[in-house]
UniProtKB/TrEMBL annotation:
Keyword set includes tRNA-binding: no
Organism annotation: Tritonibacter horizontis
Protein name: Sialic acid-binding periplasmic protein SiaP
Gene Ontology cellular component terms for the protein in this record: outer membrane-bounded periplasmic space
GO biological process, one term: transmembrane transport
Cell location: Periplasm
Family, per entry: Belongs to the bacterial solute-binding protein 7 family.
CDD domains per record: PBP2_TRAP_Siap
Keywords: Periplasm, Signal, Transport
Highest taxon above the source species: Bacteria
Signal peptide: 1-25
Length: 324
């Protein structure tokens, strides 16, 4: 009888261990973003999902949902807080709603180029701002992704700020994206990313602005004849994970964090490399790619960058970023 009881206890214990193992094997994370399946961002997310699966021996299953299939940018940011999504790509300009200073890198002409951006990514400033976002939201910034320099597309050349006066230009629905068009007298029109192509095609808006790789994979060049190299924003994305999701991963959390940081670096290099060859690619496609003097555009924006009423960061942040 005693032996039978021990056997029963052993079986029960084995069932508990088995159940725990099964639970670990079934840890699924939803990674949501607004970019197309063919974009570098989505492909790198798929790479990260496979790496996480391999490095955890199948215990972590990252499921990637592209092209706004789990919501537009504002919605997936909100989804982190309610557990609808676990990981997202999002712009610092959208995160500004939760913790303003972290949006500093996306303000017009504040970044001097890719090397400056990389210095910021590795800086104490970025680490501090990431901590500030976590304090405000409970979510963790896993990495900074290079999105590219944003340029204006239109159906006529834009060579000086006055060429943009009254121009109905689509921008993402975030405060930072309004600064540049407002500074040059344009008419900024917030609109979801997924709606832009049709809006351009139908003339709902006259122009839009995005980096060259985005203009290519979203095919905006099919409905806009000119790419004007304003380079007004050197744009980033953040990879953010909800703490509730990471908290349930146990020892595998460190592996997932490592993979996401590697993914950020991989996507960044891919976007930067593609940027270098795309001017010629667009010209070969018959698109007018217009080199412009950026100084008048910079002069229009500059007073706003140090106006405490118009920016969410402190002047100390601005000075530290400029000093990098």
């Amino acid at each position: 009888m005693f032996i039978k009881k021990l056997t029963g206890l052993a079986l029960a214990a084995a069932m508990v261990v088995g159940a725990n193992s099964a639970a670990l094997a079934q840890q699924a994370l939803k990674w949501a973003h607004v970019y197309e399946e063919g974009s570098d961002y989505h492909q790198v997310a798929l790479w990260a999902a496979e790496e996480a699966r391999k490095r955890t021996e199948g215990r972590i299953d990252i499921q990637v949902f592209p092209a706004s299939s789990l919501g537009k940018e504002v919605e997936i940011n909100e989804g982190l807080g309610i557990g609808a999504v676990d990981i997202i790509y999002t712009g610092p300009s959208f995160v500004e709603r939760y913790y303003g200073p972290i949006a500093i890198s996306d303000y017009p002409f504040i970044m001097r180029g890719y090397d400056h951006w990389k210095a910021y990514r590795e800086s104490d400033l970025f680490a501090e701002l990431s901590d500030g976002y976590k304090d405000a939201t409970g979510h963790t910034v896993m990495g900074l992704v290079y999105y590219g320099q944003r340029h204006v597309t239109s159906n006529f050349p834009i060579e000086k700020p006055s060429d943009m006066e009254g121009l109905k230009i689509r921008v993402p629905n975030s405060p930072v994206m309004l600064m540049f068009p407002n500074a040059v007298g344009a008419n900024p029109t917030p609109m979801a990313f997924s709606e832009v192509y049709l809006a351009l095609q139908q003339g709902v808006v006259d122009a839009q602005e995005n980096p060259l790789p985005t203009i290519q994979f979203k095919k905006f060049y099919e409905v806009q004849s000119n790419i004007n190299l304003t380079g007004h924003i050197l744009n980033s994305l953040l990879i953010i994970a909800s703490d509730s999701a990471i908290g349930r991963l146990g020892d595998d959390a460190e592996i997932v964090e490592t993979v996401l940081k590697e993914a950020a670096a991989k996507a960044s290099q891919g976007i930067y490399d593609s940027e270098q060859s795309l001017v010629q690619w667009f010209r070969d496609e018959g698109i007018n790619v217009n080199e412009i003097d950026k100084q008048p555009f910079q002069d229009a924006v500059k007073p706003m960058l140090t106006d405490p009423d118009q920016v969410p960061y402190e002047m100390e942040h601005f000075e530290r970023l400029q000093a990098l």
